[in-house]
Write a structure and sequence with these properties.
The protein has nine helices and five strands, in the order H-H-H-H-E-H-E-H-E-H-E-H-E-H. The protein is α/β, with parallel strands linked by helices. A five-stranded parallel β-sheet has the order 2-1-3-4-5, with helices on both faces. Bound molecules: cobalamin.
Length: about 210
């Protein structure tokens, strides 16, 4: 009989076939979906995030781990919903208008999901008007904006000032290879993070403040 430790290990190693076997096995044995999430899936993503920060693993390892986590999540999601477990925080994320890069944004979305956030991903090349509509519809606590091109960084600034002008209270976090802490401050974003692993810590700190 597999354990939560085996599941965590399988996610860290990105072994999604094993995850697809262990998760139903644990549910069958009466382990609560909440425990599977909080004691195996989330710690696995936290661990891979730490390893990434220490340069022990790189983006490909993070992606396979994330995919394994996602498959585990898919299996437990209906159980979490029927148990009435609601994520503590809701996040909205997208790549800004004109920019089609989504690998980094997807990683941040996955790490946020891994940390237990509900994440609504609006995709790539998203206009400020679409962001506003989505905020009004979903009422997220945090908005993540990604830009990979120096030519699309101004679109990031536009989203921030557009939302501020409309007095939208959402916390805004920005990232992407050309984006920096000082750029985030300059455009009035609430936070910046250089990678998906620290995006979790930074978001949690921001939401606690
Ligand atoms: C893959 C790629 C593409 C793919 C994108 C596929 C996809 N589905 O994303 C394709 C082929 C489509 C592409 C197209 C183009 N690309 Co391109 N692309 C890249 C490449 C090689 C990798 C980007 C990547 O995925 N990195 C890996 C991820 C994991 O890293 P990341 O995105 O930085 O994300 C991390 C952090 O930045 C952060 N992060 C990211 N987003 C967010 C958001 C938040 C909220 C937070 C907190 C953190 C965060 O966390 C992530 C994970 O740790 C880069 C080169 C490079 N090494 O960066 C060029 C690069 C970004 N591309 C570039 C260019 C020029 C283009 C094109 C204009 C090329 C062309 N002439 O057509 C087009 C533009 C298309 C468009 N309109 O967007 C340039 C940009 C130059 C510049 N300074 O503006 C780069 C730097 C290549 C280069 N050296 O010239 N590209």
């Amino acid at each position: 009989m597999s354990t939560l430790i085996d599941l965590k290990e399988a996610v860290v190693k990105g072994k999604r076939k094993i995850v697809n076997v262990i998760v139903p096995e644990l549910l069958e044995a009466g382990v609560a979906a909440k425990d599977i999430l909080e004691e195996a899936l989330i710690p696995a993503m936290a661990e891979i995030g730490e390893r990434f920060k220490r340069n022990e693993v790189y983006v490909p390892e993070m992606l396979v781990a994330a995919r394994a986590m996602k498959e585990g999540m898919l299996i437990i999601e209906p159980h979490l919903i029927s148990a009435g477990i609601r994520p503590e925080f809701k996040a909205l994320i997208c790549t800004v208008e004109g920019d089609l890069h989504d690998i980094g944004k997807n990683l941040v979305a996955i790490m946020w999901k891994g940390a237990g956030f509900e994440v609504i991903d609006l995709g790539v090349s998203v206009s400020k008007e679409t962001v506003l509509e989505a905020i009004q519809q979903h009422q997220p606590h945090i908005l993540g904006l990604s830009a990979l091109l120096t030519t699309t960084m101004p679109a990031m600034r536009e989203v921030v000032s557009f939302l501020r002008a409309k007095d939208i209270k959402v916390k805004i976090m920005v990232g992407g290879a050309p984006v920096t802490q000082s750029y985030a401050e300059e455009i009035g974003a609430d936070a910046y993070s250089s990678d998906a692993a620290s995006a979790v810590d930074v978001a949690k700190r921001l939401l606690a403040s």
